[in-house]
Amino acid sequence: MANIEISCEFFPPRDEKATDSLVNNVAARLAQLPPAYFSVTYGAGGSTRDGTRETVRQLLAQGYTTSPHLSLGTDDEQTLYQLLADYTDMGVTQIVALRGDQPSGFGANRFTNNAERLVSLIRAHCGDQFKLIVAAYPEVHPDAKSATSDLEFFQRKVDAGADKAITQYFYNVDAYEDFLERCAQARIDIPIVPGIMPITGYESLIRFSRGCGAEIPRWLDYKLQPFADDDKAIAEIGDEVVTRLCEKLIALGAPALHFYTLNRWGATTRICQRLDLTAA
Ligand code: FAD
Q1: Closest C-alpha among 157, 160, 177, 91 to residue 124
Q2: Which strand (E) or helix (H) includes residue 195?
Q3: 271: left (phi over 0), alpha (psi -120 to 50) or beta
Q4: Residues with Cβ within 6 A of ligand 1?
């Protein structure tokens, strides 16, 4: 059995029924892998504040180690500190600190409450109480002026007190290898965990990737596109492609794998089984 830590990301479901299904079905199945922790995303601007907190609470209540994502958005510091106090009471020990995808209309103001500021505020208010994870972009964040300035902003988050990073997903392993090399040259030495997006649908993958700046390599697009209307075929090709990607990342020495599950258990489980990562 291969030996590498995995973690699994969820988004907060829309209603109670979906939350119940996530906690008691999806998380219960993924827990058999088992992941080191689940994480739950946060809508910038506080749009999912209650949903994220409630999903985190329910996952913790089932005994699953869970890390909330958090961003400042338009929240004031008191709102942030209250949320941190709530998480302290729940027993949370690790937070994913982000700028978040801001609601439209923010313009250049979206940089004011960036991830570096959030990391600094949490460290100033809570000291070393929480382990802090930040985002990293091997293929460069779409807002960046250049790869160099993007790396500088990443370095600032690390200097502010981040312990670890998880990357945006990518299908081009060279981008990750190059990013690790550039981090090493800049003496950034925190673990950089690749984010893994299983492929389960063609149109959704193309749309989502365009939005977040993840490149779908030409060879992969050509492989998937003929089966765009056949989700079963896309999932089969996707499992094979993403398993091979993970194998290469493990061979490169990736410290862990973080799966963007989209609140589904099937593809992540199949990939982990192919990688022989499952405990069962
Ligand atoms: P930052 O690190 O603050 O900035 C991102 C980039 O913007 C920088 O690399 C830099 O190029 C540029 N930048 C930053 N500050 C400045 C400045 N002052 N001036 C000029 N340029 C600047 N989104 C959500 O809404 N909710 C989530 O829960 C969520 N979880 C995520 C988890 C992971 C692992 C990843 C990789 C992404 C996640 N995202 C989430 C998406 C993320 O919020 C977006 O990519 C967002 O646009 C940037 O967030 P960040 O924390 O990387 O921002």
Answers
A1: 160
A2: strand 195-196
A3: alpha
A4: 41-44, 69, 96, 98-101, 111, 114-115, 135, 141, 143-144, 149-150, 153-154, 157, 166, 168, 195
Would residue 9 show up in a list of annotated catalytic residues for this protein? Answer: yes
How much distance in Å is there from the Cα of 152 to the middle of ligand 1? 13
pLDDT tens, residue by residue, 44-56: 777 788 999 999 9
Phi, psi of 105 (to 5 degrees): 95, 5
CA–CA separation, 99 and 142 (whole Å): 14
The pTM assigned to this predicted structure is 0.97
Which of 53, 70, 98, 193 is the pocket-test mutation for ligand 1 (most atoms within 8 Å of CB)? 98
Q: How far apart are CA 194 and CA 221, in angstroms?
A: 21
Give per-residue pLDDT as tens, 255-280. Answer: 999 999 999 999 999 999 999 987 64
Report the C-alpha gap between 216 and 204 in whole angstroms: 12
pLDDT at position 178 is: 98
- Which pairing describes strands 131-136 and 5-10: parallel, antiparallel, or unpaired? unpaired
Coil, strand or helix: which one is 177? Answer: helix
Give 39's strand partners.
Answer: 9, 67
